[in-house]
UniProtKB/TrEMBL annotation:
Protein species of origin: Paramormyrops kingsleyae
Keyword Lipid biosynthesis (UniProt): yes
Function summary: Catalyzes the biosynthesis and metabolism of eicosanoids. Catalyzes the isomerization of prostaglandin H2 to prostacyclin (= prostaglandin I2), a potent mediator of vasodilation and inhibitor of platelet aggregation. Additionally, displays dehydratase activity, toward hydroperoxyeicosatetraenoates (HPETEs), especially toward (15S)-hydroperoxy-(5Z,8Z,11Z,13E)-eicosatetraenoate (15(S)-HPETE).
Assigned GO CC terms: endoplasmic reticulum membrane
Identification of the protein by name: Prostacyclin synthase
Listed cofactors: heme
Membrane topology: Single-pass membrane protein
Homology family: Belongs to the cytochrome P450 family.
A GO biological process held by the record: prostaglandin biosynthetic process
């Protein structure tokens, strides 16, 4: 008996050693497995990926491989070499990891899912005249919501958290614009459930939910699925043309109703999960940097529509806003922190900008983290931790595009929208919504910090890698309708 047990233990240990005993070859990036078997660096990664990766960069340089929960992830932090990953979609695949996340977060499996077709279909709807139409709907929805939120007690100061205010307004307006006024739920209810879901998202993606959180996640998902059950085209204010054609395509592919609802929740997150938080950071920085606020207000005042001007004329006016654009780019530089992840399909060689070559192993993942570089790289952006609203402006007021590292002009000096073939499809729509919201808030409301000395809250460190960061606290503000006189 004792021998059997010992033999079993011995075999397990041997197996473990063989499985985890990966050796670095000379042509591979530095390998850092961490001290914990199998898990490797998973804990540090999940707690604060930015801090962990900055330490690894310090230790190993711009490229290294870490073990994270049994997987080997090669992290590349040299923006001049990003194209070697972004342009090699034949060997470095976008969709596999996307599918893993779809299953973990949304319990969604779409057998015919093809990101290239998905992307092309979506692009049509978020460009050109179709986008102009969406812009106008978004504008109307924002206006209605803002007015109804405030009219309840017209001239009195109303107090709120800025994050809550921004996220809830942009979410509800975006939801109405793209998903329509659902029949069995109000946008407020959907927002409340969505926030619960959003709070559990990083743990779902990392599969680190505790048992009671698992139950909550399932309940929240079910409630959201129910809200997103569409009754079809007879709905009063139906879903946007984009969503209608998306649903039609799923039906044509023979996707069952249950899976359709799951796919809709994924789309809800993809289209509404980042814009609200981005708006919070921008408006928060403007409130805590009066000089920046003045500059943006001055620009907006020059764009006020004339008495009786049409909506088209007004939206037309909003197109040329270099100061706003720079302030937004700067806010996003500081708070957009997605991982750009690809799976290595076949053994491949990565050619770095400095001439070095590294082998990548089939089955590993490659991960870019533009937040560390270019965005927070002190060689590219002086005092990178500071908000400077005019960082992306030339002295003549045009957009600044020349940034340098090691004497080289950068192609990628900030990457909030990703880059290459998978760059964010919705970026123009997102920018447009943020601009409309900010314009409305700044021109029609008195809005101020409750405590004029308050500072921006720090970011919730567990969200590095998942798109826009969210604050670990909130910024208390009060607002009221401007005195029309
Ligand atoms: C401030 C707001 C937003 C930010 C910071 C943002 C950021 C990003 C990033 C970084 C990616 C690239 C992921 C990668 O390469 O792996 C991405 C992809 C995507 N975004 Fe956004 N996004 C925002 C808003 C939106 C909105 C409003 C929509 C829809 C209307 C949208 C739709 C998409 C879609 C569909 C993709 C996938 C593209 C593909 O499959 O190739 N995003 N977004
Ligand atoms: C707008 O969307 C429709 C599909 O609803 C598409 O046929 C058309 O080509 C799109 N327009 C543009 C300018 O992309
Ligand atoms: C609206 O859509 C157009 C595309 O026709 C885009 O160029 C513009 O910047 C968008 N935003 C606003 C506020 O008009
Ligand atoms: C890929 O590279 C690894 C490590 O160098 C090697 O062990 C493996 O056999 C290679 N696989 C293929 C399919 O060439």
């Amino acid at each position: 008996m004792i021998w059997t047990v010992l033999l079993l233990c011995y075999t397990l240990i041997l197996l473990f050693v063989i499985l985890s005993n990966r050796k670095r070859t000379k042509r591979e990036p530095p390998l850092d497995k961490g001290v914990i078997p199998w898990l490797g660096h998973a804990l540090e990664f999940g707690k604060d990926a930015a801090k962990f990766l900055a330490q690894m960069k310090e230790k190993h340089g711009d490229i290294f491989t870490v073990r994270v929960a049994g997987r080997y992830v090669t992290v590349l932090l040299d923006p001049n070499s990003y194209d070697a990953v972004l342009q090699n979609s034949a060997s470095l695949d976008f969709s596999r990891y996307a599918k893993v996340l779809m299953e973990r977060i949304f319990l969604l499996r779409l057998p015919q899912y093809d990101p290239v077709t998905e992307r092309a279909a979506m692009n049509q709807h978020f460009h050109g005249e179709n986008l102009t139409y969406l812009n106008a709907t978004m504008q109307r929805n924002l206006q209605t919501l803002l007015t109804s939120d405030i009219l309840q007690n017209r001239m009195d100061w109303k107090q709120d958290g800025l994050f809550r205010l921004c996220y809830s307004l942009l979410f509800r307006a975006g939801y109405l614009t793209l998903f329509g006024a659902g029949q069995n739920s109000s946008p407020d209810t959907v927002y409340d459930e969505f926030r619960r879901f959003d709070g559990l998202l990083t743990k779902m993606a990392r599969t680190t939910l505790k048992p009671e959180e698992k139950r909550e996640a399932q309940l929240v998902r079910e409630r959201l699925w129910n809200f997103l059950t569409f009754m079809g085209p007879d709905q009063r204010e139906g879903p946007s043309p984009w969503l209608q054609s998306y649903l039609k395509r799923l039906q044509e592919e023979g996707v069952d109703r249950d899976t359709q609802r799951r796919a809709l929740l994924m789309q809800l997150w993809a289209t509404q999960g980042n814009t609200g938080p981005a708006t919070f950071w921008l408006l928060g920085y403007l409130l805590t940097f009066p000089e920046a606020m003045e500059a943006v207000k001055r620009e907006f005042e020059g764009l006020m529509p004339a008495e009786g001007a049409s909506e088209e004329a007004f939206l037309e006016n909003l197109q040329n806003t270099p100061v706003f654009d720079s302030a937004l780019s700067e806010a996003l530089r500081l708070t957009a922190a997605p991982f750009i992840t690809r799976e290595v399909l076949v053994n491949t060689t990565l050619h770095m900008a400095d001439g070095q070559e590294y082998d990548l192993r089939q089955g590993d993942r490659v991960c870019l983290f533009p937040y560390l570089s270019p965005q927070m790289d002190p060689e590219i952006h002086q005092e990178p931790e500071k908000f400077k609203y005019d960082r992306f402006l030339n002295t003549d007021g045009t957009e600044r595009k020349d940034f340098f590292k090691g004497g080289r002009k950068m192609k990628y000096y900030t990457m909030p929208w990703g880059a290459g073939k998978n760059v964010c499809v919705g970026r123009h729509f997102a920018i447009s919504g943020i601009k409309q919201f900010l314009f409305m808030v700044l021109t029609r409301l008195d809005l101020e910090l409750c405590d004029p000395d308050s500072e921006m809250p720090v970011a919730d460190a567990s969200r590095y890698g998942f798109g826009m960061l969210q604050p670990a606290g909130d910024l208390q503000i009060r607002y009221r309708l401007k005195d029309p006189s």
